[in-house]
Amino acid sequence: MNITISSIYRPPRSPTPVLISDLLKIFRNRPECLVVGDYNAKHRIWNQYVKSNAAGNTLYKFARNCGFTAPADPTMISNRRNGRNSTLDFGASCGLSNTHAQSIFDLSSDHNPVIFTLTPNSTYKHAHNCFTFTNRERFQNILSVTVPGNPRINDQDGIEHAVQNFTHLIQDSINQSSKIKFLTHQAYSIALQTRQKIKEKHRLKKLWQATRYPPTKIEMNKLQREIKRELKNIKDHAWDCDIEEANENPDALFKIINKKKTEADNLPSTYRL
User: Fold this and answer.
1) Which residues, 6 or more positions from 38, have their beta carbon under 8 angstroms from its beta carbon?
2) Start and end of every Endonuclease/exonuclease/phosphatase domain (predicted)?
3) What's the predicted TM-score (pTM) here?
């Protein structure tokens, strides 16, 4: 079991989208990870008497799909006459749910030290749907430029060094040619045939917008109906697999109930019973 614990500091004027992208990069390929530090993000959920800022609103939406731990007491003590104490130091986690934070009033700094306690192997875990999408063509182009060719190898150490260098170049090429996306919904594996239909539908849509040719519109609508039908079959199959797993695993049943509860909470109030 490997748990990654990382420290983060976000400057007050740092662009808000950078915070989320940095968290996703840290969470990527790390099943259990805890990121703690000074986020400089304010929200009424963890700052009762402080006005929310843009970073706090964005982080709150992001944290609804992951583990979030903030101490009950403020972490920054204001030295102004009419200033208000606030909580700026907390933690976000992936793959961990049983975490606790406590603000300690010991040091003389304006930020109190925070003690984080976590329990590994918790029954219920928050897991990010954080996926990496690699542009294969760009990956090949970068790799063809960065790999110098056949290295000179004179002994066994040279072989190991060449292998390590080649592995490092491959990883760098993947990182440079990849994009990270955070999906709040369940990710499905779509068959190649369906992906080709989606690509063809996009082509027909552009053609229709340029020409307004009625047969193109008819063909596009027909293809759209086929795609919807195939995607529905994929979702139905995934749901059947979840139900079958829930019959044998209580944890899987909890995940299904929690997912449906989250979907209901995200509905507007006019749609709730």
Assistant:
1) 8, 9, 10, 88, 89, 111
2) 3-115
3) 0.51
Half-sphere exposure of 122 (CA within 13 A, CB side): 19
Place of tokens 């731990």: 69
For residue 167, give both structure tokens. 């592995």
Residue 253, H or E segment: helix 250-265
Q: What is 148-163 written as a DSSP string?
A: -SSPP--SHHHHHHHH
pLDDT reported for residue 192: 82
Q: Which residues have CB under 8 Å from 145's CB, separation 6+?
A: none
Which phi and psi (to 5°) does residue 227 adopt? -65, -45
**CA atoms of 185 and 93, how far apart (whole Å):** 18
How long is the chain?
Answer: 273
Model pLDDT, residue 173: 85
Contact 94, 126 (CB under 8 A): yes
Residue 256 has pLDDT above 80, yes or no: no
Query: Could you tell me which residues are beta bridge partners of residue 102?
Result: 115
